[in-house]
Design a protein that fits this description.
Length: 542
């Protein structure tokens, strides 16, 4: 049956995407934005809707990074023909598992006969799961279409559950599930705002990185998310849940560009201890450190630049050249005052992601820090730039500082290098896999730097500089705002998150205060007017 299902569903998927503009599925209002589910959002949603035992089998098309965030691209990426096939295959696989004999007890009803259609039971199943998959109630036409499809297949195969499988798969492959469709309705003063279900969706994927739960959907149905008291109640509930960790891990994974580890490689001859295990551990260390500070300790987010407190496991102990006598897998650890470490800047993640396979890179590190933490992107170098001086590691210029200084005498290169290199040079006390060092090619490494007429030395000085720089905290607020709305962070006006940033500052830069103030701001759910939206254009296959 599986071999027959995939091509059939692919045709259904193509038809549903092609007809998204005129579908009767759309709720009241017009589509203001569409954001393709990320792999994590898809997997989390399936687990929450059908159970963690349901496996998601298939490949996901990649996102791209726009203005420092991958989440921005979810609002502009379409689905390729290969993507159609993959989504179709996953839909069939999930539906087959949900309707398999060992999981049928979880379905909301039993058919009158296992060998014949039962439209009443099918309708109950479609409405229950459809509400969760589409993040709103199904329209009568949507229910009828799913039931009709299930009925037809159940008759042809003399199997109620075979028909049910196809009906569920048709929902799973629908744009209404694969995309977060946010619908705009008129508000006061000729403005537009998101409808209640779109509000629930935006809140849930920001806070929990998954689909809205039953209580949040019920609050949307009752209109509670449209008034301050109802919204406040749900925001407090979402933020009190341990699942807030999941939502913020997804945000920080994106903001800190930790997906870069997927392509990180190191010279195995020069750095034999480096491994995929250390890479995975380094990524997890940074997420654990960040979440512990931001949520568990409700700490000052500026301290992310200076804290020596972290979490390590055996892999990281080897990379950091530390003894690991602990019994547990992950253990809290605090680097010594003379370690040179300063916050996430000097964790293995940042140091390794933004370096070359065989050597460090002050330029890559500086560019990354300026972009990630200060929202000051550095332009890409011209195609004809001569990097021979920088790359001549065996020449007369022994240190990377000397080579970069010589390279930056070129007027074309100077402005960008003067912008980012001082930051990166202050971090040269760590090699390409994050180990401490003091010498380079037999010469003492100079860790001094000057930025905005402020002199400092080493990663500790850099951490203090960023800790006290208001651009860093404003950048965090900007990126949370852009991430939550799927917008280009470079296009976001400071006024858009002004109130949230003030609450962030007044709280002593607590992440929880920033989140709460942002989602409860009167303009957080604002939407563009219908004439500026073009429903369906983002769904074209390419």
């Amino acid at each position: 049956m599986r071999n027959l299902a995939v091509p059939f569903l692919s045709l259904t998927l193509l038809a549903s995407f092609a007809g998204v503009e005129c579908a009767s599925a759309a709720p009241s209002g017009q589509v203001a934005s569409m954001r393709r589910l990320t792999q994590a959002e898809y997997r989390n949603s399936i687990a929450d809707i059908f159970g963690k035992e349901i496996e998601v089998r298939g490949a996901f098309e990649p996102t791209i990074r726009i203005a420092g965030l991958q989440s921005t691209s979810t609002g502009v990426l379409s689905v390729t023909p290969v993507g159609f096939e993959s989504f179709s295959s996953m839909a069939d696989s999930i539906a087959a598992q949900v309707t398999a004999e060992k999981y049928r007890a979880k379905l909301p009803c039993k058919p009158k006969s296992d060998k014949a259609p039962d439209d009443a039971c099918t309708s109950q199943v479609m409405n229950q799961y459809g509400r969760m998959l589409f993040r709103r109630p199904l329209s009568s036409d949507e229910t009828k279409n799913a039931v009709k499809l299930s009925n037809s297949l159940a008759k042809s195969q003399n199997d109620f559950y075979a028909g049910l499988r196809y009906g569920l798969a048709s929902l799973l492959q629908s744009p209404n599930f694969l995309f977060r469709l946010e619908n705009a309705v008129p508000a006061d003063n000729k403005q537009y705002t998101l409808d209640p279900y779109s509000r629930a969706t935006r809140l849930s994927y920001l806070m929990w990185n998954s689909t809205p739960d039953a209580e949040l959907l019920q609050a949307a149905e009752k209109g509670e998310l449209n008034n301050a008291a109802g919204l406040d109640k749900q925001v407090d509930r979402l933020m009190a849940s341990p699942r807030l960790d999941d939502g913020m891990r997804a945000f920080f994974n994106d903001m800190l560009e930790l997906d870069t580890f997927d392509t990180v490689s190191k010279d195995s001859i020069l750095y034999p201890k480096w491994s995929s295990g250390i890479a995975a551990s380094a990524r997890e260390e940074t997420l654990r450190t960040t979440i512990d500070l931001a949520l568990h300790a409700n700490g000052d987010m500026r301290d992310l630049m200076t804290t020596r407190k972290t979490f390590i496991n055996r892999n990281l102990a080897a990379d950091y050249q530390l003894p690991f006598a602990f019994k547990g897998d992950w253990m809290p650890y605090e680097f010594s005052a003379d370690s040179g470490r300063s916050g996430v800047l000097t964790q293995a993640s940042m140091l390794t992601m933004f370096s070359h396979p065989g050597r460090s890179s002050p330029t890559k590190r500086g560019v990354a820090i300026m972009d990630i933490f200060l929202c000051e992107p550095t332009p890409a170098p011209p195609a004809n730039v001569d990097f021979s001086v920088v790359n001549d590691v065996n020449g007369a210029l022994k240190t990377v500082r000397e080579r970069l200084t010589a390279h930056a005498t070129n007027s074309t290169c100077a402005s960008c290098h003067n912008h980012s290199d001082p930051i990166g040079l202050s971090m040269e006390g760590f090699d390409t896999i994050g180990q401490r060092r003091t010498m380079e090619n037999g010469k003492q490494i100079d860790l001094t730097a000057t930025i905005q007429n402020k002199k400092f030395e080493g990663a500790e000085g850099l951490g203090k500089f960023l800790h006290d720089n208001p651009k860093y905290t404003a950048c965090v607020a900007r990126k949370v705002y852009a991430y939550s709305r799927g917008e280009n962070s470079e296009d976001v006006a400071a006024s858009a998150f002004k109130n949230a940033n003030k609450a962030f500052t007044d709280s002593g830069f607590r992440m929880r205060a920033l989140l709460k103030a942002m989602v409860e701001d009167k303009d957080f759910f604002s939407a563009p007017p219908p004439e500026t939206t073009k429903p369906g254009t983002k769904l074209a296959a390419q």
